[in-house]
Amino acid sequence: MNLDTIVFLVSAVVAVFGATMMISQRNTVASVLYLILSLAAQAVLYIQLGALFLGAVLIIVYAGAIMVLFLFVIMLLNLRGNQDMGDPPGPVSRFTKYLVSILLVIELVFIIRGVAFDTDASGIMSMVTDDFGSVKAVAMLLFTDYLYPFELTGVLLLVAIVGAVVVSKREKDETPIPADQASDNSDRGTN
Amino acid sequence: MIPISAYLILAAVLFGIGTVGVLTSRNVIVIFMAIELMLNAANLALIAFSRGLNVLDGHVFVFLVLTVAAAEAAVGLALIVLIFRNRESINIDRFSIMKW
User: Fold this and answer.
1) CA dihedral sign of residues B5, B6, B11, B14
2) How far apart are CA B58 and CA A49, in angstroms?
3) ipTM of the complex
4) Residue A127 above 80 pLDDT?
5) Measuring CA to CA, which residue among A190, A98, A155 is closest to residue B16?
6) Does residue A52 belong to the interface with chain B, where contact is any CB pair within 8 Å?
7) Nearest neighbour of A123 by CB, restricted to B5, B15, B17
8) Minimal CA separation from A155 to chain B, in Å
9) How far apart are CA A36 and CA A56, in angstroms?
10) Nearest by CB to A45, which of B33, B44, B62?
11) Against a cut of 0.90, is the pTM above it?
Protein backbone atom coordinates (compact mmCIF):
# COMPACT_ATOMS: atom_id res chain seq x y z
CA MET A 1 0.00 0.00 0.00
CA ASN A 2 1.73 3.11 -1.13
CA LEU A 3 1.36 6.64 0.09
CA ASP A 4 -1.10 7.67 -2.62
CA THR A 5 -3.55 4.95 -1.64
CA ILE A 6 -3.30 5.81 2.04
CA VAL A 7 -3.89 9.50 1.38
CA PHE A 8 -6.86 8.67 -0.81
CA LEU A 9 -8.43 6.28 1.68
CA VAL A 10 -8.00 8.57 4.66
CA SER A 11 -9.37 11.58 2.78
CA ALA A 12 -12.28 9.61 1.39
CA VAL A 13 -13.24 8.24 4.79
CA VAL A 14 -12.98 11.69 6.38
CA ALA A 15 -15.01 13.28 3.58
CA VAL A 16 -17.81 10.71 3.87
CA PHE A 17 -17.72 10.84 7.66
CA GLY A 18 -17.98 14.64 7.67
CA ALA A 19 -20.84 14.58 5.19
CA THR A 20 -22.73 11.94 7.16
CA MET A 21 -22.31 13.79 10.43
CA MET A 22 -23.33 17.01 8.71
CA ILE A 23 -26.77 15.73 7.80
CA SER A 24 -27.34 13.90 11.08
CA GLN A 25 -26.52 16.70 13.53
CA ARG A 26 -29.27 18.42 15.45
CA ASN A 27 -27.09 21.41 16.18
CA THR A 28 -26.79 23.54 13.04
CA VAL A 29 -23.44 25.08 14.01
CA ALA A 30 -21.95 21.59 14.49
CA SER A 31 -23.25 20.61 11.10
CA VAL A 32 -21.52 23.59 9.47
CA LEU A 33 -18.26 22.57 11.14
CA TYR A 34 -18.62 18.99 9.91
CA LEU A 35 -19.19 20.26 6.39
CA ILE A 36 -15.95 22.24 6.68
CA LEU A 37 -14.20 19.02 7.73
CA SER A 38 -15.61 17.24 4.70
CA LEU A 39 -14.55 20.08 2.41
CA ALA A 40 -11.02 20.03 3.80
CA ALA A 41 -10.78 16.32 3.00
CA GLN A 42 -12.10 17.00 -0.49
CA ALA A 43 -9.46 19.71 -0.94
CA VAL A 44 -6.81 17.09 -0.20
CA LEU A 45 -8.30 14.93 -2.93
CA TYR A 46 -8.29 17.88 -5.34
CA ILE A 47 -4.61 18.41 -4.68
CA GLN A 48 -3.94 14.71 -5.09
CA LEU A 49 -5.60 14.94 -8.49
CA GLY A 50 -3.26 17.74 -9.46
CA ALA A 51 -5.72 20.58 -8.99
CA LEU A 52 -3.49 22.71 -6.79
CA PHE A 53 -5.21 25.98 -7.57
CA LEU A 54 -8.72 24.65 -7.05
CA GLY A 55 -7.72 22.91 -3.83
CA ALA A 56 -6.60 26.24 -2.46
CA VAL A 57 -9.72 27.94 -3.81
CA LEU A 58 -11.93 25.33 -2.17
CA ILE A 59 -10.38 26.02 1.22
CA ILE A 60 -10.33 29.80 0.83
CA VAL A 61 -13.69 30.36 -0.83
CA TYR A 62 -15.75 27.50 0.62
CA ALA A 63 -14.37 26.81 4.05
CA GLY A 64 -13.23 30.38 4.47
CA ALA A 65 -15.99 32.50 3.03
CA ILE A 66 -19.19 30.61 2.30
CA MET A 67 -19.19 28.57 5.50
CA VAL A 68 -18.47 31.70 7.53
CA LEU A 69 -21.48 33.25 5.79
CA PHE A 70 -23.55 30.27 6.93
CA LEU A 71 -22.28 30.63 10.50
CA PHE A 72 -22.97 34.34 10.35
CA VAL A 73 -26.56 33.74 9.27
CA ILE A 74 -27.05 31.12 11.99
CA MET A 75 -25.83 33.61 14.59
CA LEU A 76 -28.05 36.27 13.02
CA LEU A 77 -31.15 34.09 13.27
CA ASN A 78 -30.48 33.65 16.98
CA LEU A 79 -32.27 30.31 17.21
CA ARG A 80 -33.51 29.50 20.63
CA GLY A 81 -32.57 25.92 21.39
CA ASN A 82 -34.18 23.09 19.59
CA GLN A 83 -37.16 24.94 18.31
CA ASP A 84 -40.14 23.19 16.74
CA MET A 85 -38.18 20.53 14.93
CA GLY A 86 -40.94 18.09 15.83
CA ASP A 87 -41.62 15.01 13.85
CA PRO A 88 -44.72 15.53 11.76
CA PRO A 89 -45.16 12.59 9.43
CA GLY A 90 -44.65 13.83 5.92
CA PRO A 91 -46.46 12.42 2.91
CA VAL A 92 -43.38 10.32 2.12
CA SER A 93 -41.93 8.03 4.74
CA ARG A 94 -38.32 8.36 5.85
CA PHE A 95 -37.58 4.84 4.64
CA THR A 96 -38.64 5.74 1.10
CA LYS A 97 -36.30 8.72 1.12
CA TYR A 98 -33.33 6.61 2.13
CA LEU A 99 -34.31 3.98 -0.42
CA VAL A 100 -34.48 6.52 -3.24
CA SER A 101 -31.07 7.95 -2.32
CA ILE A 102 -29.44 4.53 -2.10
CA LEU A 103 -30.92 3.56 -5.45
CA LEU A 104 -29.49 6.76 -6.92
CA VAL A 105 -26.02 5.93 -5.63
CA ILE A 106 -26.24 2.34 -6.88
CA GLU A 107 -27.30 3.59 -10.28
CA LEU A 108 -24.42 6.07 -10.41
CA VAL A 109 -21.92 3.40 -9.39
CA PHE A 110 -23.18 1.06 -12.09
CA ILE A 111 -22.88 3.79 -14.71
CA ILE A 112 -19.37 4.64 -13.53
CA ARG A 113 -18.28 1.03 -13.59
CA GLY A 114 -19.83 0.52 -16.99
CA VAL A 115 -18.48 3.59 -18.68
CA ALA A 116 -15.46 5.06 -17.04
CA PHE A 117 -11.97 4.08 -17.93
CA ASP A 118 -12.11 0.33 -18.07
CA THR A 119 -9.60 0.74 -20.82
CA ASP A 120 -6.66 0.62 -18.46
CA ALA A 121 -6.78 -1.41 -15.31
CA SER A 122 -4.28 0.82 -13.62
CA GLY A 123 -6.83 3.37 -14.63
CA ILE A 124 -5.73 6.78 -13.95
CA MET A 125 -2.98 8.95 -14.44
CA SER A 126 -1.15 9.29 -17.53
CA MET A 127 1.79 11.42 -16.62
CA VAL A 128 0.92 15.07 -16.70
CA THR A 129 3.10 18.07 -17.13
CA ASP A 130 4.48 19.81 -14.09
CA ASP A 131 2.19 22.80 -14.29
CA PHE A 132 -1.01 20.79 -14.62
CA GLY A 133 -3.59 22.56 -12.47
CA SER A 134 -1.25 25.33 -11.45
CA VAL A 135 -2.49 28.89 -11.23
CA LYS A 136 -0.71 29.78 -14.44
CA ALA A 137 -2.14 26.93 -16.48
CA VAL A 138 -5.72 27.46 -15.27
CA ALA A 139 -5.44 31.21 -15.74
CA MET A 140 -4.17 30.80 -19.29
CA LEU A 141 -7.26 28.79 -20.15
CA LEU A 142 -9.58 31.05 -18.16
CA PHE A 143 -8.44 34.23 -19.87
CA THR A 144 -8.24 32.87 -23.40
CA ASP A 145 -10.70 30.12 -24.32
CA TYR A 146 -13.14 30.78 -21.50
CA LEU A 147 -12.88 34.55 -21.33
CA TYR A 148 -16.57 35.29 -21.96
CA PRO A 149 -17.91 32.75 -19.44
CA PHE A 150 -15.41 34.15 -16.96
CA GLU A 151 -16.61 37.72 -17.51
CA LEU A 152 -20.21 36.55 -17.23
CA THR A 153 -19.51 35.05 -13.80
CA GLY A 154 -18.51 38.54 -12.75
CA VAL A 155 -21.94 39.78 -13.86
CA LEU A 156 -23.54 36.84 -12.06
CA LEU A 157 -21.81 37.75 -8.82
CA LEU A 158 -22.88 41.36 -9.19
CA VAL A 159 -26.49 40.30 -9.70
CA ALA A 160 -26.24 37.98 -6.69
CA ILE A 161 -24.90 40.75 -4.47
CA VAL A 162 -27.58 43.21 -5.54
CA GLY A 163 -30.24 40.51 -5.20
CA ALA A 164 -29.11 39.54 -1.71
CA VAL A 165 -29.13 43.16 -0.57
CA VAL A 166 -32.55 43.87 -2.07
CA VAL A 167 -34.09 40.69 -0.68
CA SER A 168 -32.80 41.09 2.85
CA LYS A 169 -33.31 44.85 3.13
CA ARG A 170 -35.88 45.94 5.67
CA GLU A 171 -38.57 48.32 4.53
CA LYS A 172 -38.11 51.73 6.11
CA ASP A 173 -41.34 51.81 8.08
CA GLU A 174 -41.29 48.16 9.00
CA THR A 175 -40.52 47.69 12.66
CA PRO A 176 -39.03 44.41 13.82
CA ILE A 177 -41.51 42.04 15.34
CA PRO A 178 -41.35 42.04 19.15
CA ALA A 179 -40.43 38.67 20.55
CA ASP A 180 -43.69 38.03 22.42
CA GLN A 181 -45.87 38.77 19.39
CA ALA A 182 -43.63 36.81 17.11
CA SER A 183 -44.41 33.52 18.81
CA ASP A 184 -48.14 34.16 18.27
CA ASN A 185 -47.63 34.96 14.65
CA SER A 186 -45.55 31.91 13.96
CA ASP A 187 -48.58 29.64 13.65
CA ARG A 188 -50.37 31.90 11.24
CA GLY A 189 -50.75 30.40 7.82
CA THR A 190 -49.73 26.88 8.68
CA ASN A 191 -52.57 24.47 8.50
CA MET B 1 -2.02 4.16 -8.44
CA ILE B 2 -5.63 4.85 -7.68
CA PRO B 3 -7.98 4.23 -10.58
CA ILE B 4 -10.04 7.22 -11.55
CA SER B 5 -13.26 5.31 -10.97
CA ALA B 6 -12.44 5.32 -7.25
CA TYR B 7 -12.73 9.09 -7.23
CA LEU B 8 -15.93 8.92 -9.26
CA ILE B 9 -17.49 6.41 -6.88
CA LEU B 10 -16.51 8.59 -3.94
CA ALA B 11 -18.17 11.52 -5.72
CA ALA B 12 -21.30 9.40 -6.23
CA VAL B 13 -21.38 8.47 -2.54
CA LEU B 14 -21.00 12.09 -1.48
CA PHE B 15 -23.76 13.06 -3.91
CA GLY B 16 -25.97 10.35 -2.40
CA ILE B 17 -25.33 11.62 1.13
CA GLY B 18 -26.27 15.09 -0.10
CA THR B 19 -29.49 13.68 -1.53
CA VAL B 20 -30.32 12.04 1.80
CA GLY B 21 -29.70 15.35 3.51
CA VAL B 22 -31.97 17.27 1.16
CA LEU B 23 -34.76 14.71 1.41
CA THR B 24 -34.74 13.92 5.11
CA SER B 25 -33.66 17.08 6.88
CA ARG B 26 -36.22 19.58 8.09
CA ASN B 27 -33.73 22.28 8.96
CA VAL B 28 -33.59 24.60 5.96
CA ILE B 29 -29.95 25.54 6.58
CA VAL B 30 -28.90 21.88 6.65
CA ILE B 31 -30.81 21.34 3.40
CA PHE B 32 -28.92 24.23 1.91
CA MET B 33 -25.58 22.81 3.04
CA ALA B 34 -26.50 19.42 1.60
CA ILE B 35 -27.04 21.13 -1.76
CA GLU B 36 -23.56 22.64 -1.45
CA LEU B 37 -22.24 19.16 -0.75
CA MET B 38 -23.88 17.83 -3.90
CA LEU B 39 -22.28 20.64 -5.93
CA ASN B 40 -18.92 19.68 -4.45
CA ALA B 41 -19.42 16.03 -5.33
CA ALA B 42 -20.00 17.06 -8.94
CA ASN B 43 -16.85 19.18 -8.74
CA LEU B 44 -14.84 16.21 -7.54
CA ALA B 45 -16.06 14.16 -10.49
CA LEU B 46 -15.14 16.98 -12.89
CA ILE B 47 -11.62 17.23 -11.48
CA ALA B 48 -11.18 13.45 -11.60
CA PHE B 49 -12.23 13.40 -15.26
CA SER B 50 -9.96 16.34 -15.93
CA ARG B 51 -7.02 14.44 -14.50
CA GLY B 52 -7.96 11.23 -16.25
CA LEU B 53 -8.31 12.82 -19.68
CA ASN B 54 -5.34 15.12 -19.09
CA VAL B 55 -7.15 18.30 -20.10
CA LEU B 56 -7.56 21.37 -17.95
CA ASP B 57 -11.04 22.39 -19.10
CA GLY B 58 -12.62 20.57 -16.18
CA HIS B 59 -10.81 22.91 -13.82
CA VAL B 60 -12.42 25.90 -15.50
CA PHE B 61 -15.86 24.30 -15.11
CA VAL B 62 -15.18 23.70 -11.43
CA PHE B 63 -14.15 27.32 -11.08
CA LEU B 64 -17.45 28.44 -12.63
CA VAL B 65 -19.42 26.04 -10.42
CA LEU B 66 -17.72 27.49 -7.35
CA THR B 67 -18.74 30.97 -8.44
CA VAL B 68 -22.32 29.90 -8.95
CA ALA B 69 -22.29 28.20 -5.54
CA ALA B 70 -21.10 31.40 -3.92
CA ALA B 71 -23.82 33.44 -5.63
CA GLU B 72 -26.40 30.83 -4.68
CA ALA B 73 -25.27 30.88 -1.05
CA ALA B 74 -25.54 34.67 -0.88
CA VAL B 75 -29.05 34.83 -2.36
CA GLY B 76 -30.29 31.70 -0.60
CA LEU B 77 -29.15 32.83 2.82
CA ALA B 78 -30.74 36.23 2.24
CA LEU B 79 -34.00 34.44 1.44
CA ILE B 80 -33.67 32.27 4.55
CA VAL B 81 -33.17 35.36 6.70
CA LEU B 82 -36.20 36.98 5.09
CA ILE B 83 -38.42 33.94 5.61
CA PHE B 84 -37.18 33.53 9.15
CA ARG B 85 -38.13 37.12 9.88
CA ASN B 86 -41.69 36.39 8.78
CA ARG B 87 -42.20 32.96 10.27
CA GLU B 88 -39.74 32.77 13.18
CA SER B 89 -38.73 29.25 12.20
CA ILE B 90 -36.20 27.41 10.08
CA ASN B 91 -38.31 24.26 9.91
CA ILE B 92 -38.96 23.60 6.25
CA ASP B 93 -42.43 22.21 7.00
CA ARG B 94 -43.50 25.64 8.16
CA PHE B 95 -42.66 27.23 4.83
CA SER B 96 -45.75 25.77 3.24
CA ILE B 97 -47.46 29.07 2.41
CA MET B 98 -47.18 28.33 -1.29
CA LYS B 99 -48.73 24.91 -0.91
CA TRP B 100 -51.47 24.26 -3.41
Assistant:
1) positive
2) 12
3) 0.91
4) no
5) A98
6) no
7) B5
8) 11
9) 14
10) B44
11) no
